Structure formats: C-alpha cells, structure tokens
Amino acid sequence: MIRQRIGPLLLVVLYASGVVASWEEKRSRRDGFDKVAVARIARATLERALALPDDGAGADVDGVPAAAAEAPDDGAGIGRGEGGDSGSAAAVEEEDVNISYDGSDLVAWINDNGGLVHKNARIGLDPAGRYRGVFVKTAEEGGTEEGIEEGEIIVRVPWDLIIKPKNYHVDRWWNCEAIHELYRQFILGDESKYAPYVNYLKNQPRGRIPDEWTDAGKRLLHTILDWRENDDVGLQPLSEKSYEETWIGECMGEDTPLARAAFYQFTSRDEDTLMVPFFDMSNHSNDPEKLNTAYPQRPKRPGQPFVLRSMRDIRPGEQVYISYNRCHRCWFDESYEDCKLYSNYETNDVFQSFGFVEEFPQTWKFKMNVGDEEHPSWDLLKFCLTRDDSSSSGLVVRFGDNYTPDPESEVPTMGNVVYMGKQLMRLVELEATVKNDGKVMEAMPKYEWEMAWTYHQALMTSISAALLASDIVNPAGSDDDSEEKDYSEDNSEDWDEQDIDYDSGDELDDEDERDEL
Fold first, then answer.
1. Could you tell me if 25 and 172 lie in one domain?
2. Where is the segment annotated Disordered (predicted)?
C-alpha cells in the first residue's frame, strides 16, 4: 500500500499499539460511518449477487450488441463486446454486417501466406447464436473427433501478416505509431496488404467501449464511478485511455470517423502494439475450467511469427479462450520475469478498455483518500475475488498479490473500510433512486444502460466482499487479520441479519444531481 504520511516502521509500531486504529475509529465516528449498517448491506449485496444465474458464457465476446444487452448476468456482471466507432444510439443499434462471418477468407489468407490455422478451428457464432469467437469444429462442421489436442498449434501468424508499428524493434509497448499504422491500413481498405483482416475490423459493431458511449451513457457511468473532472478519486480505473486525450492530444491524430474506428479497435485488443489476425477473434476468460490456451509465443524481434498453442485437449464444440490478464499475479503463480511481457489488467481496466465485466476470478484496484480534503493521504487497495464452490459462501477474497513481501500489510485499515463503506452506501442509494428512472434510461441506448448497471453490480459485489473480508468491525491492527477470507465468515457478533430492501432508499440530497443524468 502507498502510505505517504507515515513511515512503514512507524506504522507497524502504531498498529501494534492500537494508536492508528484508535485514531481511525474516532475519525469514522466523526464522519458518521455506521459499520454495522454497512456490514448488513454488504452481506445482502453478496447474497443477491451470488444468487443471480450464471449463463456460462465467456466474457469478451465478439458478437452482436443486441445479444449483449439481452444476455443474463452471472452475478459478477459479464458483458459482451469490443471496440467500435461513435457513441451514438444509431451506431450501437446498427446491424452487425459480420453476423454470418465465418472467417474462411481470413483462414485461407493466413494459410496461403506461410501461416497455419488448425484444421479443426473455426471462427463463428456459438451454437446458440449469441456471440462470435473461435471454436473447435464438430463432425457436422467438418471437424475430426480428436478436436485440438494438448500442445498443438491453434494458429501461427507470420510476421508479415501482423499489423505493427514501424518502430516495433525499439518499442514493443503501447505507442502512438501502432495506432497510426492501423489507421493507414483502414484508409487503404481493399488495397491494404492486410485486406481480409482490415475489412473485418472496419465492420465491427460500434459503441461498446465506455469512451465511445453517448453523452447520456457517459454521465450515468461517471455518476456510478463518482467521477470528477481533473480528480482521480472515486472508483474510476487508473489506466484510462480516452480518444480525445490519447489520439487527438498525445498522438496528434486527425479526428475522422475512420480514425475513431481504428483507435477503438486498437485499444480494445489484447496486444500492446500488435494486431494479430485470428488470435484477436478469440474471447477472454480467466475461469480455469474454460481457459485452454498456453501463453502466446510473441515475436521477440522483427521477423518472428506469433504462435498460439492449446494447453489441454480442446474437444469438438468447445470455444478457444485466451486471457487478457492471465499473468495477473493474484491467481497465477508466475514470477515477474515470466510475466513482464504480458498484460496485467485489473477488472476495472478490462471494463474501461474492452467494454465488459470479466467473470471470476477478478482483480480490483482502488485509489482512495484515507485522510481528508485538507490533509489527503492516498492509498492503493488491491485484492482478488475468486469463486470457490468448496467454501461455504462460494466467494474468497485475497488482499495484495503474490509480489507483496508482507501480505498482512495489505489488509484494509479503518481508513480503507470507511472509504469503501461510503462508496457502497452511495451505490445502493444511486440504485434506489436512478435505476427505475425511465427518463434517464430513455436518454441512452439500451446497451449502455444495461452495461452501466452491470458494472455497478460488479462494483457493489467487489466492495462488499472486500469489506466483509476485512473484519469490518475490527479491521487492520486486530489479532484476527488474515490474508485470505471467505466473505461469509462471521467477523463480528454485531452484524444484524435483517433483510435489506433494495427497492427503497433515501432520495439523492441534490435533486439537480438527478436532473443532470
């Protein structure tokens, strides 16, 4: 954790003596923070979230916006979709011209130019027709009974078929030249050497990344995030890349519809600087029962191919999954050296960059002011959230990560608990007063409305789990601190078991705030 006002050694001494906990307890009482009420609401929030049906789908799904809006939620809030163009209602509601796309032209292009796509792999819709991805062919689709066996190459893409920046040999990380190159290929269209891939990308449905939502959709999302301009408090992701600030400002790009399309297609892909055909059509999952591909073999220098292999047998009809943050230290026991070239998105970032809420396991990171407005003290709280059917609750929280020298130093303090508790109460009040407001709902496309509340549910679930696992009535400094907790563990005898009515709640203090939505 970041503690700018108290040295680490002094902090340990103060916690051991109870001085810090006592001071924070006094501040929580002064701020009117009711721990028992917050714990009660947190428990009810998780009971509701975990009772929601799990549709068994993946997370990032390359499919139709309408299907995304109508698909059920799994309790964490699984969304579907990737980048696009403008944020207009018409753009989101438009027909997906790729609805029947089977990728045969792309597969032929890769195979004819020195690459390899496994004979049993196909691009298309899932059997229910809900979303697009990469699947293993069934016998009816021309596949063989062995499917894709462990260790086999699913796709090998030659260097010359990868869209990449000209300066890749000196900068393999995210850079403006990579977006400029994709934009140049978009302009070329059918004349591009990557035409089969470029034309597919140009025809992707629009309006699914939060940055390209309508103004009304953004206002609702900013309210949910407690977002304030030029201020990074609240619940917003810490690595946001907006079109205006990044493409227009940092990259000095021109503002055209095609430039927007290129920007959002680039930022909604897994690779930092590479656009890899076929691989990019695979969907994301961190569920260990679904994830079936090994770490991709990325080019370490120009001229090398990009290779994706299976890490287990993938049977006919199964979907091929990749992970945008498989090297995330919270649940994969990988060293920094092994993972430093791979993505480490938190769940907050996945939503902001890719437009969906990933299924469990999830990782969350919140920046919070544990001081006050006159004397701010900034802190980072990191934790993992995992479904575990063997536990009584089915949900486990782990604070910190595998790189934390002292895991107990990551257990939330009273300052963290107060901050999260107030955010939870604010989110509950917002749901009670805004979610049934037809005027606000009608101001934006259905997709934006439903995805905003999906993320709202995910925030409430994660914050509630962290609060209850933190020993909310007796946080850091107690004898019962633990690195990993089952959320349903009774950490206090003071918890009230009464039911919480989510259909009632106090009105927002400022009516003007509702009108702004």
1. no
2. 61-89, 474-517
